Amino acid sequence: MSCDTDILIVGGGLNGPALALALADTGFDVIVIDAQPPGARGEEGFDGRAYALTLASQRLLTAIGVWDSVKDHAQPLSEVRVSDGKPGTGAGPFVVEFERGGIDEGPAGYILEDRFLSRALTDAIKAHPKVTLIGGETVVAQAVGPADVTISLASGRELSGRMVVGCDGRRSGTAARAGIRRTGHDYGQSGLVCALEHEKPHGGIAHQLFLPPGPLAILPLPGDMCSIVWTETTAEAARVHALDDAAYMEHLRPRFGDFLGEIKLAGKRFTYPLNLTLAEAYVSDRLALVGDAAHGVHPIAGQGLNAGLKDVGALAEVLTLARRRGEDFGRIDVLERYQRWRRFDVATMVAATETANTVFSNDNPLVRVGRGVGLGVINALPGLKRFLMREAAGLTGDLPRLMQGRQI
Amino acid sequence: MPMISADTTVDPSEVAKFEAMAAEWWDPAGKFKPLHMMNPVRLDYITSQIAAEFGRDLTGPRPFEGLRLLDIGCGGGLLSEPMARLGAEVVGADAAERNIPVAQIHAEQSGLEIDYRHTTAEALAEAGEQFDVVLNMEVVEHVSDPLAYLTACQQLLKPGGMMIASTINRNPKSFMVAIVGAERVMRWLPVGTHDWSKFITPAELEDLITRAGLRPVDAKGFVFNPVSWQWSISTRDLSVNYVTASLKPA
């Protein structure tokens, strides 16, 4: 009994190709099935999406060989300022400043636009001799056998592997076909995303401004540009998104403040609803879920892609070590090691994110005083701040080897 | 299928116990769950010892290509299959007849070629079979004459060959953990799986291995952590489960 490949990966976004590279580097044969047609990923032009990559994520991208091709487009973060603001008044008096000196490992992270990361990952899998990319195909069925799994594509083509990995996002078909149920809720909030040009240099400082409707994240891009994620209630976001550019900017300016001088729109505007969607299991027989397919979280802490890349590092490590022992790496008892590793970590992250969102998306004066004092306390205690800084950089917890800058 | 030779050291009452469990071998959540849970550390030890002794690179494909390996007490093939997947030419031997078809069916499903035989170490030695590696995992505590059994293992090795043997220590802690804990409290194993008086201390095993004509080269503990719910290898704690490597002089 022979298979077309060792591992079938469904999803050609970011986590899918990253996992393909991590696995192919340790000797696995991998097929990536991407619903997007060949050449559609990483188009020219800014599409508004940028990621705050933790240092741990940057190390993983280095280990899988894609960092070199994106590093010139990445903006190092010299500081992350978390502040409690009220519309029109700018930042509150208690501000947490995470300077570069807060940790020893260099910058706390990097801001990188989706188009550069997506392009680099796609180019890398196309160039890797052990990865086959099948574009413009969707999966319509999957069947698990005693030692393999077969997936059927919309074109009628069938592919078999020792296991399948769903990197197919919040509405993962891979999870649904395996009968894995999801839980979660709608936050009643939507994110408004756009890029801005500004007058004064940002100095590599990212801002997280906690406003009553929801947080405003300002992520510095190379040059005098930044990407913003502005969270509003869904009804308000729809209204703001429908405004013309001038009215949109009128609305944004008092929230944004004038600390970067004049601001103007650079490119298109986007909006998307924010929800939490968690798969009830991350694995089943010969199947694993990675990234948003396993845990789609609120972007408040910018942890979506970072959590996905941590899944990538953990799953690649579990599967590689299993194969080196001679184990049948698609078996449920092997895959459960990945689930045990990641599920607790994700549960902690979800709980922290929920708390932050509840505490900060609130205009109750008592809550405001409380969080102001909390931010002040964080600043006054260097040890705690250092821990939070390392936490924000993704350097705490049980890190996969690829995130420690090591090979598996 | 070869018959068990007349001078076997397998205790008939022990064989009957394992025959009753044979069909459950490959269910990770079934009766052999404790063995499945322990398998990664057993494999970590076995693969690293073989790789170090025979100069093999575990990061490459089929690192054990060219090695002939015997898995004594192969059961359903929990060790034989990984060894075959790593490229070794594997003979799996079990004294319980019913284990053989179970193991054969599973190897076929996994696309692996393994020579499973209903036989014993003594019978194979008598037939003049020779191996680079003999795996002797959790067997010695079930045989009636450990020295005769280990001598047969020695005879099965080529000069310079390696035997890896694991068993359970005999002390108050191992009684609590392996008999009271695993069999009676956790119900991981059927009551009567182990006879505590047959457990062997590391010093006794080292002495037996030496008398059988092998040179002990390593000993480590397998330790279960009830918090992380995982097994790990310990250089110091050989108080319950432990494993040894020994070589046949070249």
From TrEMBL, chain A:
Occurrences of domain FAD-binding (ranges): 4-344
InterPro entries listed in its UniProt record: FAD-bd, FAD/NAD-bd_sf, Ubi_Hdrlase_CS, UbiH/COQ6, UbiH/COQ6_monooxygenase
Transmembrane segments: none
GO biological process entries: ubiquinone biosynthetic process
Pathway note: Cofactor biosynthesis; ubiquinone biosynthesis
Keyword entries, A-Z: FAD, Flavoprotein, Monooxygenase, Oxidoreductase, Ubiquinone
One Gene Ontology molecular-function label: monooxygenase activity
Origin superkingdom: Bacteria
Cofactors, names only: FAD
GO CC terms in record: ubiquinone biosynthesis complex
Gene3D superfamilies xref list: FAD/NAD(P)-binding domain
Family recorded in the similarity comment: Belongs to the UbiH/COQ6 family.
Name the record gives this protein: UbiH/UbiF/VisC/COQ6 family ubiquinone biosynthesis hydroxylase
Native source organism of the sequence: Maritimibacter fusiformis
